[in-house]
């Protein structure tokens, strides 16, 4: 149950951070305005809180592992929201990053 909770928290963090960054991008680069920017800032702020709910008490470990989730999540967001089509190197890189998440967070310790 702890691993499932951790994975769900990583997914929520990715949604908040990537979604927030996308909203800011849309507000500034696509000229969608201050509402998009404000919503993005709020989402990015929410992301900052989500990691604190991870069961592992080590900030460095949690944020290092989240980096891999962010990489894969960013590619997935681009595919779903912006029509981006990753090439095989994007996919391979994301797979390596997700393997790193598994090793960092869930490898047996002790």
Task: Explain what this protein looks like in three dimensions.
There is one protein chain. The protein is 80% helix and 0% strand. The chain starts with a helix and ends with a helix. It has helices at 2-29, 34-50, 59-82, 88-106. The mean pLDDT is 97. Pfam families: UPF0060 (PF02694). Keywords: Cell membrane, Membrane, Transmembrane, Transmembrane helix.
Layout of helices and strands, plus pairs?
Layout: H1 2-29, H2 34-50, H3 59-82, H4 88-106
Helix pairs in contact: 1-2, 1-3, 3-4
Protein name: YnfA family protein
Subcellular location: Cell membrane
Keywords: Cell membrane, Membrane, Transmembrane, Transmembrane helix
Poorly predicted segments: none
Q: What is the averaged pLDDT score?
A: 97
Q: How many DSSP E strands?
A: 0
End-to-end distance, in Å?
A: 20 Å
Largest sheet, strands/sense/barrel:
none
Radius of gyration: 15 Å
Order of helices and strands: HHHH
The class by helix and strand makeup works out as mainly alpha
Shape: flat
What percent of the residues sit in helical stretches (DSSP H or I)?
A: over 70%
């Amino acid at each position: 149950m702890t691993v499932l909770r951790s994975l769900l928290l990583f997914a929520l963090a990715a949604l908040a951070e990537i979604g927030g960054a996308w909203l800011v991008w849309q507000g500034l680069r696509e000229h969608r305005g201050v509402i998009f920017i404000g919503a993005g800032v709020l989402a990015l702020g929410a992301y900052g809180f989500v990691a604190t709910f991870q069961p592992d008490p080590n900030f460095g470990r949690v944020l290092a592992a989240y980096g891999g989730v962010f990489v894969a999540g960013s590619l997935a967001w681009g595919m779903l929201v912006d029509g981006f089509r990753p090439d095989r190197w994007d996919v391979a890189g994301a797979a390596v990053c997700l393997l790193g998440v598994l090793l960092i967070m869930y490898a047996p310790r002790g």
